[in-house]
Amino acid sequence: MRHTLRKKPRAPSLRRYGKAGPRHSRHQRIAEEKSAYKAGQGLSVAHQLLLFKSSSNGSKNGSAFKDPAFGENKILPVHRWVPWIAGFSASFVDSVCAAYLRSSNGRGRRLVLDPFAGVGTTLLQAVLNGHDAIGFEINPYPALAATAKLQTLKINLEQFDAWIDEAKRSGKAWRSAPPKGVIAPNLKTRIPFLSPRVERQVLHALGFFASIPDERIATLFRIALGSVIVSVSNYTYEPSLGSRPGAGKPLVEDADVLDVLLHKLHQMRADIAWLRERTKETVTVGTGRVINANFLTTNGEVEPASVDLMVTSPPYMNNYHYVRNTRPQLYWLSFISSPEQQRELETGNFGKFWQTVRDGQDLALGFHHRHLEEILKQLRETRKSAGAYGGPGWANYVVAYFNDCHQFLAVLKRVLRRKGVGVIVIGNSIIQGMEIKVEQILGDMAAQQGFELEGIPCIRDKRVGASITQSSVRRGLRNRATLYESAVIIRKP
Fold this sequence. Notes:
The protein has 493 residues and is α/β, with parallel strands linked by helices. 40% of the residues lie in helices and 12% in strands. The chain has 18 helices and twelve strands. The chain starts with 25 loop residues before the first helix and ends with a strand.
């Protein structure tokens, strides 16, 4: 049985860790806690349901949703561990759980699913709300980050402290010759990813991680390095991964890797202690797990008709290249070691990438949708002379994306319980100057597959996307449409 909080959660006390703690005021911390952990509390069931049923796409009523913007997570304990370009806020997940999982109907814990788990926002919040959670993530780096977050309450803090202290001692020698047996990965970049002085320290750090016998603690160290490695490199996120000189920034000739790493580890340690205190004797915590696999090809990992609520945000149809943008972590943390393994991840990614489908034969939709078919016909005629770089190549990308959407809905229908709900946060797209209302097509597809479409509220009428809408490659004719986000809400009859 789920228990509600009997007292306000306390902000993490970081005095012991000095500058490692967050640098914002008490009032800011209180605001964060209210935003993240009080969403949906005290509302009537009817009011909660109205949050998700009252508006259709484009309606101003959609503002009743909690802001889905992932930016909030950058300052929230545990969620802030790993920077991530996509997803939604912890408070958004809380409000969805409050609306659809408030009553247990005598069944005890509910099961929450996120088929595109990313770094685990849905999973962690579902668990903290007393539910069980399961997530799928094809990219091993965010999958490991999500797993680490779910294991926070199982960390032995005394051992974690001991290994942090050991890192301080051994780190004094990290500027010496690289340790034997630890070599830099085969990561191909236009300029060296790490300068020699920085690379030497990172190799020592990896050798140190290998000496930690406790797998959970070793994982925390690896996640800490993954979250900061780009900051000490010659590359930067703007928001896609690119060289620092390309962004008008100087190369990083040297950096104190140990200091940067310790700062992150102290932050993680403080968050774990805070979360443990928050859940102590006040909350029934659920269990969660992450499966590093493609949800579209799931085979038995989730029992049929077992999921009560699905909350997810699939990759948008904007060609943001998740694999390429996590190459530093994938190679340096030894998830992959060759371009062939990288391509395997790219071709298995949901929606594919334009680069992987543009040159092939014209792809065909695996289902009928008159409006989408008309869009594709027009798209294939746009900038036809440019071949794969014009409309024909982008049409293949759109077809691949929606074919994966169709398969996703089919698998979801199999694992959802009767009356189970799915909340899909998705954005519209502008490709070759043509606006594609992804949320409306997705809603039509769900109805075709037998779901009840409860609504498509617009939850954010503006989102960042200038790098997509203004790109000369993708623009075609100039389009004045704006980018927004909606929630497609479906229910299994």
